[in-house]
Design goal:
CATH topology of the largest domain: Rossmann fold
Shape: globular
Distance between the termini: 21 Å
CATH architecture of the largest domain: 3-Layer(aba) Sandwich
Largest sheet: 6 strands, antiparallel
Order of helices and strands: HHEHEEEEHEHEHEHEHEHEHHHE
CATH class of the largest domain: Alpha Beta
Number of domains: 2
Length: 369
């Protein structure tokens, strides 16, 4: 839960983004029963991502217009954090369809402030069945759906007129980026370029089939290197970095290209100092006639394409992961992030940008209902 005394005074002034100083661990009662239409879940693993800090700073969700509760209780409340979780159902509330859900079932779920807890209560409508409550499924409800959704809902890659569209993914070795590379390449048949910032990230991208890899820390000109490999530009640019690197993507859009923004991790973890690593954008490039730029926010997916089409995309995305067509690469440090204290180590890992793949935290079983 976010420290309410700190948050109440700082939230609206400088939008602090330091997880270590803006949050604290608290103990709350475990609910005896689940609310109507909800289930109680023992969280086994939680995903960590930039969205956690955006939410914490009041960027979206409940905390965008409501301060944290000062008196914590057993319910998920304003101030709780965590956008991706995996766990096992412990109890069903009244109104939950027992033909669909049962105690002991492995599930994953997304949302605002539901997974950085050992025990959580979530609406049954937010649950997705998974084969096992294992860490790779932390990447599914937000990271994978943001990847597949951004490419398909906004980028229209599934119905692209070109047999092999060209796709650029910035921040390609991150939790969402490496999923976007694989969905574009292995599910939609695109030719894919990815940008990253270390040799270990280059190796991971090569292992998942990225066609062209540009390390922005080694390249004398990211723009020139990408332009040489893709002289006709990119049909889709999938950008999660923002700043200068994101702007390179705008410059390299094909005549009818689509720029899909999903965030700006270079700024999300930069505190109040602005973008890190020389990624400041001086002047935002203007798009040409026929080119488009859209921001994709995963929770808006059902509204954009309809609930039925979104449910179909969820099923297809889950099947791609379950079948091994898309591989969730877990950051090697994630195995050492355990318990509520591990969340702070994981957030620091995310802040440094050293992670290769998806970061997650494991919660070992403890006494509970």
């Amino acid at each position: 839960m976010v420290d309410p005394d700190w948050f109440a005074t700082k939230r609206l002034t400088n939008r602090e983004k330091c997880f270590a100083t803006a949050t604290k661990i608290v103990s709350v009662p475990i609910p005896n029963t689940a609310n109507y239409g909800e289930v109680i879940v023992r969280v086994t693993h939680a995903g960590v991502q930039a969205s956690d800090v955006i939410q914490m700073a009041g960027g979206y969700g409940v905390l965008s217009n409501e301060l944290p509760s000062k008196e914590p209780n057993g319910m998920v409340q304003p101030g709780d954090l965590g956008c991706e979780g995996v766990g096992i159902i412990l109890k069903l509330g009244e109104g939950v369809n027992k033909k669909v859900w049962n105690v002991g079932q492995s599930v994953c779920f997304g949302g605002f402030g539901v997974s950085f807890r050992e025990i959580t209560m979530v609406p049954a409508t937010s649950l997705i069945k998974v084969p096992n409550a294992t860490p790779e499924w932390t990447a599914f409800p937000v990271s994978a759906m943001t990847a597949a959704g951004g490419l398909e809902v906004v980028g229209k890659i599934r119905n692209h007129p070109k047999q092999q569209p060209s796709v650029l993914v910035t921040g390609a070795a991150g939790g969402t980026g490496h999923m976007a590379v694989q969905f574009a390449k292995h599910v939609y048949g695109a030719k894919v370029a990815g940008t990253c910032g270390s040799a270990s990230k280059e190796d991971m991208l090569a292992s998942i089939g990225c066609d062209v890899i540009v390390n922005y820390r080694k390249s004398s000109s990211v723009e020139d290197e990408l332009r040489s490999a893709f002289p006709n530009g990119f049909d889709i640019v999938y950008d999660g970095v923002g700043g200068r690197i994101g702007n390179v993507g705008r410059k390299l859009l094909a005549p009818n290209g689509v720029f899909v923004g999903i965030g700006s991790v270079s700024e999300d973890y930069s505190d109040t100092e602005g973008p890190k690593e020389g990624n400041q954008m001086t002047t935002k490039s203007k798009l040409q006639k026929g080119q488009t730029e859209t921001f994709f926010f995963c929770p808006a997916g059902p509204t954009i394409i309809g609930q039925e089409a979104w449910a179909d995309l969820i099923d297809r995305t889950k099947n791609s992961i379950a079948s091994g067509k898309v591989n969730v690469c877990l950051d090697e440090e994630s195995s050492s992030f355990v318990g509520m204290e591990g969340l702070y180590q994981a957030q620091e890992r995310m802040r440094t940008g050293l992670n290769v793949g998806k970061i997650c935290v494991s919660f070992p079983p403890s006494s509970g209902p």
